[in-house]
Backbone:
């Protein structure tokens, strides 16, 4: 049987070119993986492994092509000089790949351990949250008991004196002077009771020292101003539509601003370069609403369900605490935060804040959601 | 005593310098050594790829399709190393075969050598597998919020 060695040459040349092209794409994808998870040691390692394979796919085929070209052009002697160099590079690259591959197991073990630790931290975090809730209940219970005891102790004496005095006045008729004397005593005890009531009012006010009534429009504008450089850097425009009249809300301005900034930052990170996003405010029953709309990647249902879970994150450099903390801040202000997203189309984040702390929360209690909350429809419309 | 040692040493060095001699320092290496090192590199490369394949195969990540692609890419590179290793050995033993001409043969060794020379069919396929695996891994990472928390059963 007769064969032509030309087929070997053709496979060699075409294969060499294919190797270079495919390995280039491999490296590109691997770098994208590394960029997608910069915190992951394992994916960085994978990038190194692919880079070594790229070096192999470049050095060897390049040597082969140069060989074919030089021999075809009659430069056999030149190839004889270059051949050892090419061969040595190949040999070194082979050893390099072998050396890098050895660490695969270790790197995988590190990744597995990190996964386990993450789960452990999540569990501890949930336990801490539960403990915190229990502690809050205990503290509230203790405060109620102390308050009841204190009220009973402080009020018992004046009330007993007032009751006794009135009973005596009612029992037998007295002279005007005697009645006046009794009434003076009663007035003194009433004044004592008033003092006690004033004291309780002061106590009630004390925890609210950090809260102030501010215009939510100004807060949102300040938050947007703060985040604007990040948006400009990614060529994303932020359209701000605020309610015409002021939206007074009783909040800790710094905390709420931070929460809004965090949500806007999430929206920026989810948006593609050159796109736009909207930030709106409007009046709601008993409060005001901030709406942050982006037309980015959106979230799957699974992600939406976990988005407020501590340590859950989809971002590259995030502890995953962000939205969990934002939710906590909003709830501490008697407000709420809700997220609605359509995968591939975008996300709407809505924050409701009551105008007065302690005001009935219309959002969650009476089920009357402020109009315009059909988030998915909003996204699809845009 | 010290002076005597000095004079004797100096006399020996002068005598040695006067003689013609081969300059023995680091060891010289011939083409054969280069070839052996290259073959050794093939063994290491092949073994590393086989090890990578087995590591993935015996791990949880084998459940994920992208890792299976990468593992099969590694397996093909193992095969490629065996192929090229055999090709090098045959070329070493039968250098006359390495001629790009029409050839008629009924010898088994020729056909083994001929198939070995078509090694790009194997390594290009291996790189395609690597590419598919990496591409799917990227898609997976982009679609999942936190890939490390749940390993999808994609069997």
Residues:
């Amino acid at each position: 049987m007769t064969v032509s060695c030309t087929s070997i040459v053709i496979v060699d040349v075409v294969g060499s070119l294919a190797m270079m092209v495919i390995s280039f794409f491999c490296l590109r994808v691997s770098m994208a993986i590394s960029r997608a998870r910069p915190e992951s040691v394992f994916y960085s390692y994978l990038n190194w492994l692919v880079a070594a394979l790229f070096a192999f796919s470049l050095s060897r085929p390049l040597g082969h092509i140069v060989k074919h070209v030089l021999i075809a052009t009659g430069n056999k002697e030149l190839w004889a000089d270059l051949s050892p160099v090419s061969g040595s590079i190949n040999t070194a690259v082979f050893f390099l790949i072998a050396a890098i591959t050895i660490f695969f197991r270790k790197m995988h073990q590190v990744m597995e351990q990190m996964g386990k630790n993450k789960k452990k931290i999540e569990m501890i975090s949930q336990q801490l949250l539960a403990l915190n809730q229990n502690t809050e209940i205990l503290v509230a219970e203790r405060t109620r008991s102390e308050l009841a005891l204190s009220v009973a102790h402080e009020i018992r004496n004046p009330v007993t004196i007032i009751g006794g005095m009135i009973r005596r006045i009612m029992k037998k008729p007295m002279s005007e002077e005697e009645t006046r004397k009794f009434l003076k005593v009663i007035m003194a005890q009433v004044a004592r009771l008033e003092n006690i009531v004033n004291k309780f009012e002061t106590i009630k006010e004390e925890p609210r020292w950090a809260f102030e009534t501010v215009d939510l429009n100004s807060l949102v504008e300040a938050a947007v101003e703060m985040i604007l450089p990040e948006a400009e850097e990614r060529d994303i425009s932020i359209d701000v539509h605020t309610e015409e009249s002021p939206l007074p809300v009783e909040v800790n301005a710094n905390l709420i601003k931070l929460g809004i900034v965090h949500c806007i930052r999430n929206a920026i990170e989810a948006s593609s370069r050159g796109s736009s996003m909207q930030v709106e405010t409007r009046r709601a029953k008993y409060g005001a609403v901030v709406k942050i709309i982006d037309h980015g990647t959106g979230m799957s249902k699974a992600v939406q369900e976990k988005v407020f879970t501590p340590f859950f994150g989809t971002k590259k450099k995030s502890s995953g605490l962000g939205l969990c903390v934002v939710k906590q801040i909003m709830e501490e202000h008697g407000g709420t935060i809700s997220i609605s997203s359509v995968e591939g189309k975008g996300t709407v984040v809505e924050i409701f804040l009551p105008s007065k702390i302690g005001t009935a929360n219309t959002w969650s209690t009476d089920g009357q959601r402020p109009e315009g909350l059909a988030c998915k429809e909003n996204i699809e419309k845009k | 005593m010290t002076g005597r040692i000095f004079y004797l040493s100096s006399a020996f060095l002068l005598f040695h310098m006067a003689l013609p001699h081969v300059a023995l320092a680091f060891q010289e290496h011939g083409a054969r050594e280069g070839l052996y090192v290259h073959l050794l590199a093939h063994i290491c490369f092949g073994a590393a790829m086989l090890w990578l394949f087995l590591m993935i195969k015996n791990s949880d990540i084998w459940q994920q399709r992208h890792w299976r692609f990468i593992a099969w890419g590694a397996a093909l590179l193992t095969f490629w190393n065996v192929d090229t290793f055999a090709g090098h050995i045959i070329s070493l033993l039968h250098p006359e075969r390495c001629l790009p001409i029409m050839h008629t043969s009924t010898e088994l060794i020729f056909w083994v050598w001929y198939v070995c020379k078509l090694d790009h069919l194997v390594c290009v396929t291996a790189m395609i597998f690597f590419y598919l695996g990496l591409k799917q891994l990227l898609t997976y990472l982009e679609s999942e919020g936190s890939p490390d928390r749940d390993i999808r059963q994609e069997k």
About this structure: The beta strands of chain A are 2-4, 212-215, 237-241, 248-251, 276-284, 287-294, 336-342, 346-354. The CA atoms of residues 135 and 141 of chain A lie 10 Å apart. The longest strand of chain A covers residues 276-284.
